[in-house]
Amino acid sequence: MADQLISYDPSGVFLPEHGITPEQLADLAGHLDEARDEVLADAQLWADGVEPSAEKNPLDAGFHELPDRLLGDFRSHGAKSELARIKAAADRLSAETQSVVVLGIGGSYMGARALLEACCHQYYNEVEPAMRRGRPRIYFEGNNVDNDALLDLQRLLQSRGDQWGLVCISKSGGTLETAAAFRILLHDLTASLGKDAGDIAKYVIPVTGTSGKLFELSKALGCKEVFEVPDGVGGRFSVLSAVGLMPAALLGLDVERLLMGAAAMNEHFRNNGPATNIVLQYVGVCHLMEELRGCYTRILSTWGKRLEAAGLWYDQLLAESLGKHEVGALPLTVVNTRDLHSRGQQHQEGARDKLITNLIVDTPSRGAIKIGSSDRNQDGLNELAEKSIPQVLAAAIEGTNQAYREANRPTADIHLPQLDEYTLGQFFQFMMLATVVEGRLIGINPYGQPGVEAYKKNMNAILRK
Fold first, then answer.
1. Any catalytic annotation for residue 82?
2. Cα within 13 Å of Cα(268), Cβ side
3. Which end of the chain has fewer CB atoms surrounding its CB within 10 Å, N or C?
4. How far apart are CA 345 and CA 189, in angstroms?
């Protein structure tokens, strides 16, 4: 199958009463083009090392061309490139461990979780190693403050008695949730090695900045494989750096294809105007629905179980980037058809403050399961015996969109041709580009997250009293 771009269909927002019109979207084209040009100029400004003006500070625009730079470096320098070194380190740790705990929070965690849930076996840690392609089990910690969850993980690792390792992801090493979990699990790992505790660096891979607490701790441990959280790439924009690539490589995913998908989205974004540019169309629809129809809640409606974490990754991206100066839409991820039996009632008949964007995978990764016939037809399903589960899902999507249209509820669709590394790379880059474009469109700096720092400062002050 030839590589396909994801697509965007906003036809469900063109409603007579509560939607917008194609003409209104077309009228916004000039402003969208200007915002796109500003985003491209920001990326070039960052690449040239130019000090940004005060209103653009911080300017963490390094994420934009990161996929192209990493791929270019890999093609030019082979085994010496960062991508090759990430793959080699992941292969080595995979060969020497049966489990790996990935420590990180926010942008240092959400992308990795999204990659596992979208691209791996749905019961990844439970299946035999052969079904994981010989890769280790993956657990996530340091992403919350939960004593019982951490204790359960400690006991699980101890009970198995096999070799495990740690990947700690933190630019500064100062984020308390991650730092505390790392200290505790590092102690456990050291104890588990016994007389071989001097070899602990073999089982620890840090992903961090070029200075800071974790960097210094990595040197003290003697870690030879330390990967960089690149400058100019904020946490929520870092999924296509070592932050996301190291966990992806540990999972045995094709990290080149992941970056190639993102690079393809970059090319589309650069070379298409508002009439055909899906990033600009998505931004335009979201902006107009908010400004003209008061749709301040943006629901990302994922269909099936595999994209929930990708939606949660986007929740953070949108909330931290645009939730400033008392503006910014509220993101909400739902999983359907599950949440049609909970939130669906409100979406159908509640306040008209919502834009629903469906995230749909067109082709399932596995073979289709049929409902099948049965001698026990008390459930009345024999008439659907030849229908498959993907057909049931497709009917649910169509039926839900029809119900929303009939109630004048705006919807749009993002279509992923299939769910794999290439398509997920496109999705990540699509959403990151859309977020910074919208920030420039509405005059909000999409980089930096000053509001997040307040709780950290207070928490540390309380603990140190």
1. no
2. 24
3. C
4. 48
Cα Rg for the chain, rounded, in angstroms? Answer: 23
Neighbour tally for 127: CB within 10 Å = 13
- Asked about 291 being catalytic, the answer comes back as no
Read off the pLDDT of residues 248-270 as tens digits, 9 standing for 90 and up: 999 999 999 999 999 999 999 99
Helix (H) or strand (E) holding 102: strand 99-103
Q: Which of 128, 195, 341, 406 is catalytic?
A: 341
First to last CA, the chain: 61
| Buried b / exposed e along 320-339 (16+ C-beta atoms within 10 A) | bbbbbeeebbebbbbbbeeb
Token readout for 279 is 């990033």
Q: What is the mean pLDDT of the chain?
A: 96
Q: Which of 177, 308, 320, 438 is catalytic?
A: 320
Per the annotation, the verdict on 77 as an active-site residue is: no
Q: How far apart are CA 149 and CA 158, in angstroms?
A: 14
Q: Judging by beta carbons within 10 Å of its beta carbon (0-12, 13-18, 19+), is residue 291 exposed, middle or buried? A: middle
Q: What percent of the chain has pLDDT over 90?
A: 95
Q: What is the pLDDT of residue 126?
A: 97
Please, what's the b/e burial string for 211-237 (b: 16 or more CB within 10 A of its CB; e: otherwise)?
A: ebebbebbeebebebbbbbbebbbbbb
Indicate the pTM of the whole model.
0.96
| 180 and 74 Cβ atoms separated by less than 8 Å | no
pLDDT in tens, 392-419: 999 999 999 999 999 999 999 999 999 9
- Mode of pairing for the β-strands spanning 411-418 and 330-336: unpaired
Do residues 255 and 83 lie in contact, with contact meaning Cβ atoms separated by under 8 Å? yes
CB 280 within 8 A of CB 286: no
